[in-house]
Design goal:
By secondary structure, the protein is an alpha+beta fold. The chain is built from 7 helices and 10 strands. The protein is about 50% helix and about 15% strand. Strand 1 and strand 2 form a beta hairpin. The longest helix has about 40 residues.
């Protein structure tokens, strides 16, 4: 036992391992410093190019983590660890994790695309997949959070967004409000059209340009359908919609224009 710790053995161990330890420590210190500098430079570049503030810290953390892993591998190699097998094990582990989380990674990739190309932003009114309609409250890495008109919270995976048709109702700043009203076949079409236009002029949300128009869109089984598409600021979409629905009904009632509904006549044969 004493032979294991004599001065000659200790001296030989110091001579053999001290340079490796010092080299590994210096590699860690300098490597982490370089990793931090590169990460800060990447973040500044992302901000300069207008990348969304939500994705900038995340991409910065990915760069930082990747560089630090490389520094650790380099330090392990200097210290004498067999890095080839270490890298192989790390690669196999990363592959296994990737296979297990491939769905989540797909949503992550979609989130990065959404945050980079910005098909919508926070506050926009969107329709995702032809059914999920709401205002965008938050764009996360894995999900997009919507708030519906009745204040429900819809969490849509980003992969669903990028793999479906997405309509940004607020995308152009101004949007047409699709409205239709059925009147009876005995009612005066011109009068009904004029009444709808009058209500539109009184609506505080409808824009003067482009001018509102009313057309006959359908001759239905029980009604002549009049369609109109007034334009409003995107944030006033629902206000204008509900205003027109209520006040056109009141104006029709006041002026004697009917809202027909399907009826069934039952005859008792004798």
């Amino acid at each position: 036992m004493e032979g294991l710790f004599d001065m000659a053995t200790i001296s030989r161990m110091i001579t053999e391992y001290a340079p490796k330890v010092i080299g590994a420590v210096l590699t860690l210190i300098i490597g982490f410093w370089i990793a931090g500098a590169v990460t800060r430079a990447v973040k500044k570049l992302l901000v300069k190019n207008g990348v969304d503030e939500t994705v900038t810290p995340f991409l910065g953390s990915l760069v930082s983590t990747g560089l630090k892993v490389m520094v650790l591998i380099a330090a392990a190699g200097i210290f004498g660890v067999e890095t080839t097998s270490f890298v192989a094990i790390f690669g196999a582990l990363a592959f296994a994790i990737g296979m297990a989380l491939q769905g989540s990674l797909g949503h992550f990739a979609s989130g990065v695309l959404l945050l980079t190309f910005k098909p919508y932003k926070v506050g926009d009114l969107v329709d995702i997949g032809g059914g999920n309609v709401g205002s965008v409250k938050e764009i996360q890495i894995f999900n997009t959070i919507l708030a519906t008109l009745d204040n429900k919270r819809i969490i849509v995976p980003n992969g669903v967004v990028t793999s479906n048709v997405m309509t940004n109702i607020s995308g152009q700043g101004e949007v047409g409000v699709e409205l239709s009203y059925g009147i009876g076949y005995d009612d005066d079409i011109d009068k009904a059209k004029e009444l709808i236009l009058q209500v539109g002029k009184e609506c505080p949300y409808i824009l003067d340009s482009p001018a509102q128009g009313v057309v006959v869109s359908e001759l239905g089984d029980s009604a002549v359908v009049l369609a109109t598409r007034p334009f409003v600021k995107s944030e006033n979409y629902w206000d204008a919609y509900f205003y027109m629905q209520e006040n056109v009904k009141k104006r029709f009632d006041k002026e004697g224009v009917s809202f027909p509904y399907p009826q069934m006549d039952v005859h008792n044969p004798k």
